[in-house]
Automatic annotation (TrEMBL):
<keyword id="KW-0805">Transcription regulation</keyword>
<dbReference type="InterPro" id="IPR005471">
    <property type="entry name" value="Tscrpt_reg_IclR_N"/>
</dbReference>
<protein>
    <submittedName>
        <fullName>Transcriptional regulator</fullName>
    </submittedName>
</protein>
<dbReference type="Pfam" id="PF01614">
    <property type="entry name" value="IclR_C"/>
</dbReference>
<keyword id="KW-0804">Transcription</keyword>
<dbReference type="Pfam" id="PF09339">
    <property type="entry name" value="HTH_IclR"/>
</dbReference>
<dbReference type="InterPro" id="IPR036390">
    <property type="entry name" value="WH_DNA-bd_sf"/>
</dbReference>
<dbReference type="InterPro" id="IPR036388">
    <property type="entry name" value="WH-like_DNA-bd_sf"/>
</dbReference>
<feature type="domain" description="HTH iclR-type">
    <location>
        <begin position="24"/>
        <end position="85"/>
    </location>
</feature>
<dbReference type="GO" id="GO:0003700">
    <property type="term" value="F:DNA-binding transcription factor activity"/>
</dbReference>
<dbReference type="GO" id="GO:0003677">
    <property type="term" value="F:DNA binding"/>
</dbReference>
<dbReference type="InterPro" id="IPR014757">
    <property type="entry name" value="Tscrpt_reg_IclR_C"/>
</dbReference>
<feature type="domain" description="IclR-ED">
    <location>
        <begin position="86"/>
        <end position="268"/>
    </location>
</feature>
<dbReference type="InterPro" id="IPR050707">
    <property type="entry name" value="HTH_MetabolicPath_Reg"/>
</dbReference>
<dbReference type="InterPro" id="IPR029016">
    <property type="entry name" value="GAF-like_dom_sf"/>
</dbReference>
<feature type="compositionally biased region" description="Basic and acidic residues">
    <location>
        <begin position="1"/>
        <end position="11"/>
    </location>
</feature>
<feature type="region of interest" description="Disordered">
    <location>
        <begin position="1"/>
        <end position="21"/>
    </location>
</feature>
Amino acid sequence: MISVDEARDLTNDEAQPGRPAGLIGAVDNVLRLLRLFEDHEMVRVNQVSRDMGLSRSTVHRMLVTLAHHRFVEQEPLSRAYRPGPALIEIGLSVVGRIDVRAVSHDALTRLRDETGETVHLAHLRGPEAVYVDSVESAHAMRTGSRVGWTLPAHTTAAGKALLAELPDAELTTLYPSGELAAPTPRAVTTIGQLRVQLEETRRRGYATNNAESEDDVYAVAAVVRDKQGRARGAISTTAPRSRAGDAWVTATAEAVMRVARELGDRIG
């Protein structure tokens, strides 16, 4: 059973000032809710209820439905909601595939051909690395495409390359507790340990992931900067750890940094 307020919220199809006739009230409310993410990284039930003038129970049901379809996901500690994988996947399939992605695929392919390993393009979304493009290795044993994946940024090479671009105050905001989840035994678990890795990343110009996000995966990544010096994404080359010896890391880092610079020169 739903309340009278919920029934009104979900079936209000009446024309209102500034709103054309024929709109479906429930659909309009869901789309208005999603548009809140244009201005907010995360939203809470009380906030949405206040901003949209809907009952808390209606907002809760809307968010539960959106979460079921992966359009939003709930942050376990704060219980707030953030954009989910489905929203990201739709965004990637529309319009120019983001500025960098629109011109990156050829560069990723060249890097794959040069290194022989799978190559990814990723962006930073809060404390997560979001993978938006990939070109797979031809090896039978390889790391696969990660397009559509979101992984903790502090565990990935691409994520660390992008985190290294942030001011320290912003890094603290991303990790207010100072404690980090460790999906594998090799991942760092404190912001202090992460800062050491990020300083090393800035010093040498590239980041690494030594089985920190997934077992038996090694990755090398560098930031793609536009002509104004702004970070627009990061490219990474990943391989099974059995193929990632010291010589491979050195050669791959040089190739990744070079291709990242070349790609940055192509974007505004």
